[in-house]
Task: structure prediction
Amino acid sequence: MMGRITPMVKNLLLINIAVYILTSVIHTPLSNLITNYGALRYLNSQWFLPFQVITYMFMHGGFWHIASNMLGLFFLAPLLEQVWGPKKFLIYYMACGIGAGILYAGAGSVESMYVNKNINSYLSIEHPTPQQYNDVVDILDRHADNYINIPGLRDLYYDYSEQGASQSNFERDSKRIMFKVSEVYKASRDRFQLIGASGAIFGIILAFGMMFPNLELMLLFPPIPIKAKYFALMYGAYELFRGVNQSPGDNVAHFAHIAGMIVGFIILRQWKKQHGSFY
Result:
């Protein structure tokens, strides 16, 4: 099996494994430095640095994280490199990973600005009403649920809207809570880190499915054959479903995986226009 591996895929495997060992197995001051500055932050974070859109691709959070990504690279990528050549393959791989990171981190930045704008707007209201407070809490539920865990956040609305407590007390308590929400949310978003080659790997999965649609692959779980085009569709649909229905505690960036596929699709369509059919 090792005889089929291609040069660029081999280099990418070695780099990813080396970085994983350096950051997750061998703990040194350099390990902490790479972890703190190499992971991708949201684009509007004070910790964001431009080179992170590249370095985050070579960092992984645990054994199964790197194992799943490297298995995808090992089994699917060599055939693509044989068809495209090392240079074109590397361009595609890096573009999918960088594009996925920028799209995901950029979307997260826009979302955080939207949430912060609504929080600040509420805090600027001189005499806010329970309904205005509840409207902001609804926004937090939709866009910040994974970042904010403050007891009584929703209860305040019911306490004052149904029990008829004084307006002055409501204004005081609601602004105190919303100010705390603002601090917690900003701090949590600033600490956000995206790592892993998944965006690039999902670009690889898409390319494999488009270029070799009828080639049968053998799944590991369950051990059944499946055509490459259905394999890519299955993975894409699964990630979309998990992203839309993300459960609490799920720290997988499902939409970053989808973003890798989107970038890959755009690249492949452009190459097809320039050079004709490639599959």
